[in-house]
Design a protein that fits this description.
- With 333 residues, this protein is mainly α.
- The chain folds into two domains: 170 residues, GMP Synthetase, Chain A, domain 3; 109 residues, no CATH class.
- The protein has a three-stranded mixed sheet with strand order 1-2-3.
- Strand 2, helix 7 and strand 3 form a beta-alpha-beta unit.
- Helix 9 crosses helix 10.
């Protein structure tokens, strides 16, 4: 269903109709807010988007400090001061960010769930004011206030909009620390078995150097275009698809157009990001393969297991990815 933002963009002439249709189609496929699809397609810049959201919702644009340094309201004993919990925040696409001049400031996504927000805040003993913000900022502030990890898609977009280094610092500051695991119990090694009194067999001759097992090759993302071309040509389709799945930790079957569209969007990504995305894949085998490769590459796992319930998997995956983001090799230049 079109939002008031889409009507505003058309009426103002800020966005051509065909670009808006593309953004609405992307929103239908990938979900999320229309403003997220617009930023991903670079239909409008962030500043123009804030202005369009404010005009569409008739809400103000918040002070940037409220977004960059949100404050959670708590009682003296440390408990939540308001009954505006994370479930309410997700349902209403809204999040309280602090007090200013005695007024509770609440960020809202578009379309604004006015009735639900007003119903939840009706019993508050303090006045409140609503401000509009893009979905990436709502998600970032939810992470800061409720320790709710941002989706990988929004993290990537957030980094593109505000910069990779600020987002890495944000992730490091607002993701909860990984749990401290108890030490593994010591393993008792049994004494070696004594050989029988009979004459021992001669030791086996060493295997030739050529027969020694070699480590498996590291998948090379540069192979992706050639593999997609083999799919288009109908050459070794099953083998080409299997190789693409192994490299990308995605699976679009034997459909070269879908592979090509994915490659166009993710060609510049670090392959480690593909592996972390693979941890969230709907296919168990892909999650297991991504976990195995990441464990081998990082020596960590932060409690992730491919067969855990989705909520537990995503919490562990977010911690693991935030840890890697903070430690990944810095690019030169």
């Amino acid at each position: 269903m079109p939002s008031r933002l889409s009507d505003r963009l058309l009426a103002s002439g800020l966005l051509p109709a065909e670009r808006l249709r593309a953004a609405l189609a992307r929103q239908a496929v990938y979900g999320g807010a229309l403003d997220t699809a617009l930023l991903e397609l670079e239909g409008v810049d962030e500043g123009a988007l804030w202005s369009a959201l404010a005009a569409a919702t008739e809400l103000g644009i918040p002070d940037r400090a409220l977004c960059e340094a949100p404050q959670k309201l708590v009682n003296p004993d440390g408990s939540d001061a308001l009954e505006l919990d994370v479930a309410w925040s997700i349902r209403c696409r809204a999040v309280p960010v602090g007090l200013k001049d005695g007024v509770l400031q609440i960020l809202c996504g578009e379309p604004v769930a006015r009735a639900a927000i007003e119903a939840a805040t009706a019993d508050l003993s303090i006045p409140f004011a609503l401000f509009v913000a893009p979905e990436i900022w709502i998600a970032a502030v939810q992470q800061a206030i409720y320790a709710r990890p941002m989706e990988p898609r929004l993290v990537r977009l957030f980094a593109r909009v505000v910069g990779a280094q600020p987002v890495r610092r944000w992730q490091a500051a607002h993701l909860p620390p990984p749990p401290v695991l108890p030490p593994e119990p010591p393993i008792e090694i049994p004494p070696p078995r004594q050989p029988p009194p009979a004459a021992a067999a001669p030791p086996p001759s060493p295997a030739p150097a050529a027969a020694k097992r070699q480590p498996p090759p590291v998948p090379d993302k540069a192979e992706v275009p050639a593999l997609i071309a083999r799919l288009e040509a109908g050459t070794d389709v099953a083998a080409s698809q299997a190789a693409l799945v192994a490299i990308t930790k995605q699976d679009f079957g034997a459909k070269p157009k879908r592979w090509a569209a994915w490659w166009k969007e993710h060609e510049a990504d670090d392959r480690m990001d593909w592996l972390f995305d693979g941890l969230s894949h709907k296919t168990t085998e892909i999650r297991a393969a991504a976990e195995q490769e990441l464990r081998a590459l990082t020596g960590e796992y932060f409690g992730y297991a491919f067969d855990l319930p989705k909520r537990e998997r995503e919490t562990a995956r977010s911690r693991w990815q935030a840890w890697w983001t903070e430690r990944r090799p810095k690019q030169k230049g």
